[in-house]
Design goal:
Number of helices: 0
Oligomer: single chain
Strand content: over 45%
Shape: elongated
Radius of gyration: 15 Å
Helix content: under 10%
Order of helices and strands: EEEEEEEEEEE
Structural class: mainly beta
Largest sheet: 7 strands, mixed
């Protein structure tokens, strides 16, 4: 019913920048929060940044001042601008969205995840 498709990952040198995008599609009535998580090898998935429908943002301490999350509500898309990347940012990045779906008059809100996109920072 709902799909999240990420793009923008890749290989970058330390100090470089990348921009991730995630577009939501399907039977979407409303999108509440959207965000980015990441999971490095051998580590748990962690929140990187999140943004509400009203534009309030939240960042992990490790990325504050370097990453910026934004969203285009008209396009159901969330972005993550990543600057000053370092080796510790290497991970698979996952898009997340809390979405209200209405089907046959019934509504339900659930968490949805993208398939993940690899970000590798070489030192």
């Amino acid at each position: 019913q709902v799909q999240l498709v990420e793009s923008g990952g890749g290989l970058v040198q330390a100090g470089g920048s990348l921009r991730l995008s995630c577009a939501a599609s399907g039977r979407i009535f409303s999108i509440y929060s959207m965000g980015w998580y990441r999971q490095a090898p051998g580590k748990q998935r962690e929140l990187v940044a999140a943004i509400t429908s009203g534009g309030s943002t939240n960042y992990a301490d490790s990325v504050k001042g370097r990453f910026t999350i934004s969203r285009d509500n008209a396009k159901n898309t969330v972005y993550l601008q990543m600057n000053s990347l370092n080796a510790e940012d290497t991970a698979v990045y996952y898009c997340n969205a809390y979405i209200l779906v209405v089907t046959s008059g019934l509504s339900s809100a659930d968490d949805y995840w993208g398939q993940g996109t690899q970000v590798t920072v070489s030192s």
